[in-house]
Design a protein that fits this description.
alpha+beta; 5-stranded mixed beta sheet; single chain
């Protein structure tokens, strides 16, 4: 068993608000000029992440986040996670369906000065679309 590093603890703070709705940890985790790649629709910086959290909590009731893997290498932290909730709000143009949905994601965070300065984020929207009942072709 390994000890949780300061970098891992820092990165986990970014995910907690998704499940709790408490965004006070966001300012502790993200640098003021934090950059998401691709850019968030809700806007840049910590304010953009807080708005994204609020949006997702409005789309999915009973939202949870499970961090399945964390790999720390120097100033980089990789996270593999799965979020689960009940689809009750509009997402991808689909009104709430009441269906349970899983969103798998991979994130790569860069840390400088004790805060996350940039996050590269990939979500399985193809899988989500299928769960929402959208016809998807491979």
């Amino acid at each position: 068993m390994t000890e949780t590093s300061a970098a891992e603890t820092l990165v986990r703070r970014m995910y907690e608000p998704l499940a709790t709705g408490d965004t006070t940890l966001v300012d502790q985790a993200l640098a003021p000029d934090w950059e998401a790649v691709p850019a968030l629709q809700a806007g840049p910086g910590a304010a953009g992440w807080k708005a994204t959290v609020s949006h997702l909590r409005g789309v999915f009731t009973d939202l949870t986040v499970t961090i399945e893997d964390v790999v720390v290498s120097g100033d980089q932290v990789a996270v593999r996670s799965v979020s689960r909730g009940v689809h009750t709000g509009e997402l991808l143009g689909v009104p709430g369906t009441g269906r349970p949905v899983e969103i798998r994601a991979a994130d790569f965070h860069r840390i400088e000065g004790g805060r996350i300065v940039r996050t590269w984020h990939l979500e399985d929207y193809f899988g989500v679309a299928g769960q929402l009942g959208l016809k998807v072709s491979r």
